[in-house]
Design brief:
This protein is an all-alpha fold. The chain has helices at residues 5-24, 32-39, 51-65, 72-81, 91-101, 125-129, 135-146, 155-171, 178-187, 195-211, 214-224, 233-246, 251-259, 265-280, 287-296, 299-326. It has one domain: ADP-ribosylglycohydrolase fold. It contains 16 helices and no strands. Helix 10 runs parallel beside helix 12.
Length: 329
Amino acid sequence: MEKNLLYKKVYGCLAGGLIGDAMGSPVEGRHYREIAEKYGEINDFEGSGTDDSAIKHILCDAIISNKSYVTADEFAEAFLRNQQHYGKFFIPVKNMYHKIKDSLALPVYAGMGNMQSSSSAMSISPMGLINACNPRQAALETYDVAGLIHAGETTCCRDGACAMAAAVAEAMNPEATVDSVVKASTAYLHRISSKVMIKRIEETIAFAREAGDYNTFREKYYESFLYDVMCDSRETVPCSLALFYLAGGDPVKSIIYGANFGRDTDTIATMAGAIGGAFKGVDSLRSDWVEKIKRDNPEQEELAEKLVNVILGRMADVEASIKSFKQLL
């Protein structure tokens, strides 16, 4: 496949997300001071990631199998095809899985009542990729897909997934800026129903601007922005966007910031890395990281190629629709 900008951005998003997940996972749940004392600065990784990457691969299965047109139903079917990942799932994902496996709930209702987490947002970046340059559509389609794991009372987690997908879709735009990516994360959420997530993101980005640097932001974030459950999307999603902002869109800095942030490090780093990778492309990642991906996780290149083909197929459908519409004029 031609290694054009589309491919480089798709592969950059996949690789950045996987690296962030793998780099952050060994210190998940620790305070940033504990990480610094024991490891100094974490800036390398091993392995293939955690449930963040496993669920992302399940979503990619759904997308590829259905030529990009995926809802909660197709996502649910992909979960049932990939039972080998069950041991990695967190509580709300296991709840959803058993609801659909045992026919206790339809996929569109399986997210009802599940506890808060980042299980939707952390794995949702492929929804942004297939809606490249169209953050509005990314948010719209993601609302259905993310409802498989989170709905009802935990809709803020569903909103967090929509925010992340929209950010990735905007990051795919060659004319995107760091500010436009951050703005896109809230621009297409439900104005009233998603106001909790919108407010948290806007407050956190404003705070990052005021802090001006990573260390100051991290210290102050711990003082005012943490939740009882560390994987709560109201904490992780705004944080990931802020780290991307503070890194100036650089995926290497975004990933390292996330891995050393503490708390839900794998999830924060995978989301920040996915946005940064989509924004700058795979060539902006450290060459030794990319070589390690090629050696230990070679399926990522093949996955990127398949997603590119899916995206091109979707664009052909859009062009056909435009051609038909012009006949009305």
